[in-house]
Amino acid sequence: MSNKQSYEPPITITPAILRLATDISVKADRLAVRGESALDLRLRRVSQVRSIKGTLAIEGNALDEVTITAILEGKRVVAPLREIQEVRNAIAAYDIFEKWTPHDEVDLLKAHGILMAGLIDDAGRYRRSGVGVIAGSQVLHMAPPAKRVPLLMGDLLNWLARTELHPLVAGSVFHYEFEFIHPFSDGNGRLGRLWQTLILCRWNPRFASVPVENIVHLHQEEYYNALIEATKAGDSAPFVEFMLTMILEALKSVVSPQVAPQVSPQVKRLLETLTGEMSGREIMEVLDLTDRKSFRHRYLAPALDAGLIEMTIPDKPNSHLQKYRLIGAW
After folding, report:
1. Which domains does the chain have, with CATH numbers?
2. Which H/E stretch holds residue 326?
3. What's the burial of 237, exposed, middle or buried (CB within 10 Å: 0-12/13-18/19+)?
4. Which of 50, 121, 136, 160 could form a disulfide with 211 if both were Cys (CB 3.0 to 4.6 A apart)?
């Protein structure tokens, strides 16, 4: 990867990449530019929990949003100790990740140290042995030799510092190249996803409230297939197209539809709060409401009656698994 000339990751800017980047830019403009109100902070916490759940679930962590929220609030939970540690580490990293500089190697190593603290012996240090990505008995990818990792990462971070590619594309290219190098003995996936989110937030800070990692988890098999396809092609374009699709889908889950003037303030708040699929309890928590009867009468029922939201289990309206989602946001 390294030579006397500055390294340039192989990437073909396809029509699909241009179209997706344009669509994301337009949609991102609809992310409200507001101060850090109490509602904004609660929405951000919901997004953080979903991002943590998604990125760790890809790595096999089975803890759900309720348990992760309990850990975030310092409550005692009954779960495998390693999974609890993974969540605590991720919370610590996501709490401060916006302070890091994407092309700073010191920050990258620090982030890995936080994410993998207490999980591996070499947290915060590049690997010193060979690694591969294996599915069953099939070797999907053999990473470059360990002795080349510092040089390869130096090239990649230097490229990130000087590239003129749009951050949407540059972040996706970095994500792919990082996973190809696989610089650490463990934790590469969760750090690669976190680092792309960091790059997105440097472009638009409101992406801190967009749970891209959770959407990637919902398309986990496609995520791995895109990595494999890009490696086979010797070009990160297939992976870039996939990640831009995930970012666009994540944006669709958080940008509220245009609200008609006659909609009540309560319904408007509900629509601004609803991201992806949420239970009534989750919506009430974000809105800081405690009266369930008032919530259903003033918020939930009017939004349902107006056709602005829908149930995920419409044939069982009283199901304890019931959640709600926006209709016609796009």
Report:
1. 15-252 (1.10.3290.10), 265-326 (1.10.10.10)
2. strand 324-326
3. buried
4. 50
Q: Which of 227, 190, 226 is nearest to 61 (CA)?
A: 190
Q: Confirm if 140 and 224 have CB atoms less than 8 A apart.
A: yes
Q: What is the mean pLDDT of each run of 10 residues along the chain (330 residues)?
A: 71 96 87 51 78 94 90 91 97 95 98 97 95 70 92 97 96 97 96 97 89 92 93 96 95 62 80 85 91 92 84 86 74
Closest C-alpha to 304, from 266, 267, 262, 256:
267
DSSP 31: S
Q: How far apart are CA 289 and CA 59, in angstroms?
A: 34
Instruction: Determine contact, residues 207/200, Cβ cutoff 8 Å.
Output: yes
Distance (Å, whole) CA 84 – CA 116: 12
| pLDDT of amino acid 152 | 97
Two tokens, residue 127? 């690997």
* 17-26: Cβ within 8 A, 24+ apart: 17/169, 17/237, 17/240, 17/241, 17/244, 20/168, 20/241, 20/244, 20/245, 20/248, 21/166, 21/168, 21/169, 21/244, 23/248, 24/168, 24/244, 24/247, 24/248, 24/251, 25/168
Which residues 6+ apart lie within 8 Å of 18 measured at CB? none
Q: Judge contact between 241 and 16, C-beta under 8 A.
A: yes
Q: How far apart are CA 222 and CA 245, in angstroms?
A: 11
* Per-residue model confidence (pLDDT) at position 42: 64
pLDDT for the residue 262: 62
Task: Name residues whose C-beta falls within 8 Å of residue 229's C-beta, 6 or more positions apart in sequence.
Answer: 238, 239
For residue 86, CA distances in Å to 119, 260, 322 come to 8, 43, 28
Place of tokens 């958080």: 254
Residue 114 to residue 124: CA distance in whole angstroms: 8
* DSSP state for residue 171 in the 8-state scheme: H
